[in-house]
Task: structure prediction
Amino acid sequence: MTSTFSISLQALTELNPERHWNFVKIDINLNELQHYRESIIKNVIYPCSTVLDDSIGSALWFAARGNGILHQDNVPYESLAEVLLSGLGADEQLAGYSRHRRTFETGGWKALENELDMEMNRISKRNLGRDDRVISSLGKEVRFPFLDEQFVNYLRSIPIWLTADLRLARGIGEKYLLRYVARHYLSLEQSSKYPKRAIQFGSRIAKLESRKEKASDQCSRLTTTNNNTMNDEE
Result:
């Protein structure tokens, strides 16, 4: 195991040796992706319809389902967890996306603040509803600790350079506050240095179909059936 997650898992195990950690490897093939996208995923992602929605929604659905191989024993495993945690909101508030660095480099602190305000104003429409529908379709619930009202208000009460200092290098400055906590309070020294890797790239689901598409493009794999259904109803 050499992935960033496996290294983080090792760190957690060393810090909490008495706790049992399950590392479930979820590996799907193209046929499985296409089957569940057509029968379930595209319907719960709707009305979101971009290539990015397809990649994130599909990866999230299979992760939330929790069917895979238990690494420690190399046996099939199905998670019985009914309540899941999502990190949604951390990047939007703590400048975790590469576009935030470009905004800062061209417009400074004020431009970055405006960008993050815009992120939070649209998060329910752009991300939150989609992710909630995807996970709810599996009969599970999701919690968003980074969108807790008290946490959001706290971040807004302190200077932005204490939460995200993009004067620092990638892997250090973005989500600076979270990295600081991980390093100094949780003893996750190595994990605190990893640059962000989006779920669609970390899971490699974006490469499974080997299509040359932009994230913002309309995804024909999501819209075809829905459009036909709407036309039939008309």
User: Anything to note?
Assistant: Residues 226-234 have pLDDT under 50 and may be disordered. The chain has one domain: 4-233.
